[in-house]
UniProtKB/TrEMBL annotation:
Domain SRCR: 26-133, 147-248
Superkingdom of origin organism: Eukaryota
Regions crossing the membrane: 276-302
Pfam families (UniProt xref): SRCR (PF00530)
GO cellular component: membrane
Species of origin: Amphimedon queenslandica
Name of the protein in question: SRCR domain-containing protein
Annotated spans, Disordered: 308-328, 398-421
UniProt KW keywords: Disulfide bond, Membrane, Repeat, Signal, Transmembrane, Transmembrane helix
Biased composition (Basic and acidic residues): 310-327
Keyword Disulfide bond: yes
SMART domains: SR
Signal peptide: 1-20
Length: 421
């Protein structure tokens, strides 16, 4: 019984709220009409169950654009003090709800902007008026997944329509609940929704039903976070199941700098949009090409360096081989100017010595050749023998065992021991 009573109270509150205004609703008031015609007038905003005015301090064309977008227009044409634009001041009994309003580009709701609550230092002589461009906000700049509310008695309520494939269509209520309604309202710049059916609001029979079985993540702020536009209709719904909602704005939650837009967002249960997929494919292709080009350059550099090293090694081997072929071992020994002795390397005198003559049938032959010191060097084959006068620069090398040559009548003199330096 208690549960039934709570349900009845909830339903009464919900549908009573549907009939009223929502926090953050705006209107432009002139002498005879509000939103119905000219798109201009004294700016009023609904906060805490009453309409109040907005002070002109800091309020410029950017803030006017936010108001006009909220009303469904494309932009603001002019803003200023009400009298200067030809409108009437607010009533003395009216509250001044906002002062020093400052918005940034892309904001979708005036309560998302920075502001001071209350009148501040203003009176009604400072009430601001706004004139909007009535071309229509929803006639330009549409994108897949864009949403709007249509047909309501106020701007914060209506039939939910979504833009897909170049036309506006509706959303089926299968699995659509408060969380999904909050998502739509956040996309429109509000903080939350009052979810409930508004009688008499349905799409036309010629309209497509673009979304069905919509399920959104918690705290999502774009309908494209939940589902993306299909290429063709795919549902089991009729327009009697079209979703209608009413949005509201919680003034205790001031969303400073909340200028997120849902254009080009395509991640959801429906997968990635075609534009995002194409972008990803292009980016991955470019990255792959860069990686392959870098790898090719590295491999080419390694190959060139290896070939160069092989050519240098081949050239060195050829030069070494050629040098050995051009200089026989015997010639190297005979022409060398240095001889390794037990006392170290010594330099031979630079004389043009005749090469000793050897005759096998006569045995070794030696001859005496004078040197620079006046003495004589005794040669046995190519070995220098003892020099009697110890001439500097002459190498003393122990010769092999020598027999008396047949050409001499005297025996070969005894070889004294090597002289140490």
């Amino acid at each position: 019984m208690v549960s039934l009573w709570c349900l009845i109270v909830t339903e009464l509150y919900l549908f009573h709220s549907i009939e009223g205004q929502a926090n953050g609703d705006v209107r432009l008031v002139d002498t005879h009409q509000t939103r119905g015609g000219g798109g201009g007038g004294r700016l009023e905003i609904f906060i805490n169950n009453e309409w109040g005015t907005v002070c002109k301090d800091q309020f410029g064309i950017r803030e006017g654009n936010v108001v006009c977008n909220q009303l469904g227009y494309i932009s603001a044409v002019n803003v200023g003090i009400v009298k200067r634009l030809g409108y009437e001041y607010g009533n003395e009994s009216q509250s001044i709800h906002l002062d020093d309003v400052q918005c940034t580009h892309g904001m979708r709701h005036i309560l998302s902007c920075n502001y001071i609550s209350g009148s501040g230092d203003c009176d009604h002589f400072g009430d601001v008026a706004v004139i909007c461009n009535t071309t229509g906000y929803y006639s330009v700049g549409e994108y897949d997944g864009m949403v709007r509310l249509r047909g309501g008695s106020i701007q914060s309520e209506g039939l939910v329509e979504v833009y897909c494939n170049g036309e506006w269509g509706t959303v089926c209520d299968d699995q659509f609940g408060p969380n999904e309604a909050d998502t739509v309202c956040r996309q429109l710049g509000y903080t939350s929704s009052l979810y409930g059916r508004i009688n008499g609001l349905i799409g036309s029979e010629s309209q497509s039903i673009w979304f069905d079985d919509v399920v959104c993540p918690l705290e999502s702020s774009c309908l494209n976070d939940c589902k993306t536009c299909p290429t063709t209709e795919y549902h089991d719904c009729t327009h009697k199941e079209d979703v209608t909602i009413r949005c509201t704005y919680d003034t205790s939650v001031q969303l400073y700098g909340d200028n997120k837009t849902c254009r080009n967002i395509g991640v959801g249960s429906g997968g990635l949009s075609g534009g995002i997929i194409a972008g990803i494919v292009i980016a991955v292709s470019l990255l792959l090409c860069c990686c392959l080009a870098t790898l090719f350059v590295i491999l080419l550099t390694i190959s060139v360096m290896r070939r160069r090293r092989e050519r240098e090694e081949t050239k060195e081997n050829e030069e070494h081989t050629k040098s050995r072929e051009e200089t026989p071992l015997e010639e190297t020994i005979i022409k060398s100017t240095e001889v390794l002795t037990p006392h170290g390397a010594r330099t031979l005198p630079t004389h043009n010595y005749d090469v000793p003559i050897f005759k096998e049938e006569e045995g070794p032959v030696y001859e005496t050749i004078p040197n620079e010191g006046g003495g004589a060097n005794y040669y046995y084959r190519d070995t220098v023998l003892y020099d009697k006068q110890d001439t500097p620069g002459v190498i003393y090398i122990q010769p092999p065992t020598v027999t008396t040559p047949s050409v001499s009548e005297k025996p070969f003199p005894a070889m004294p021991p090597l002289k140490k330096e």
